[in-house]
Specification:
Shape: elongated
Number of helices: 2
Order of helices and strands: EEEEEHEEEEEH
Number of strands: 10
Strand content: 35-45%
CATH superfamily: CheA-289, Domain 4
CATH topology: OB fold (Dihydrolipoamide Acetyltransferase, E2P)
CATH class: Mainly Beta
Oligomer: single chain
Structural class: mainly beta
Length: 191
């Protein structure tokens, strides 16, 4: 028998529906002095931080574009996106260990620039918990995951929901900027 769909009026801080039994897998990230988790199923690739091109006129949340197999990959500053920008390292030795987590964001492939990818976590299904509205990181946190290291306040790791990272308007702008980067790159290779 199928479970009924959740109503659209579901509070933003309610955990996502979970299957009974089984195991959930998450990628553990270091981000602006705290740890966060992303559902492993949402992650397409992990990249060490390459040289990024940053054409003029990009919004501050866009770190630049990585050349991924000849295609521009927009790379977003995850800390800025989540309202944690003041704590994010921009340069120095810590920048050597940064990673790009490649995701699909509503039909747009993009990278999230994070301080470090730390680990893979497995958690029993049913372990996700609601988070208080003041801990949703600009509404991007879907749930809290009990912290196996016990270092996060409240004992819960914020679980980011890739579908909440960008508004529809932001995705449209990002697609336009990516097309412009693709056209710019094509001008340099034409000849």
């Amino acid at each position: 028998m199928m479970e009924p769909a959740l109503p659209d009026s579901e509070p933003a801080n309610a955990p996502p529906p979970q299957a009974a039994g089984g195991t959930l897998h998450f990628l553990l990230l270091a981000l602006a002095g705290q740890r966060c988790a992303l559902p492993r199923a949402a992650v397409r690739e992990l990249l060490p931080l390459p040289l990024l091109s940053r054409p003029p006129g990009l919004p501050p949340v866009l770190a630049g574009f990585a050349n991924l197999g000849g295609e521009p990959l927009p790379v977003l500053h995850a800390a800025r996106l989540l309202g944690l920008a003041a704590l994010a390292p921009e340069q120095g030795q810590d920048a050597l260990y940064r990673h790009i987590v490649v995701l699909e964001l509503g039909g747009t492939r993009a990278g999230l620039l994070v301080d470090r990818v730390l680990d893979l976590l497995a958690a029993p299904a049913g372990s996700l918990r609601p988070v208080p509205p003041d801990r949703t990181l600009n509404g991007c946190v879907a749930a809290g995951l009990p912290d196996p290291g016990g270092t996060e306040a409240g004992g819960l790791l914020p679980v980011l929901d890739p579908a909440r990272l960008l508004l529809a308007e932001e995705r449209a702008v990002l697609q336009g900027l990516t097309e412009a980067a693709r056209a710019r790159a094509a001008e340099w290779t034409a000849g």
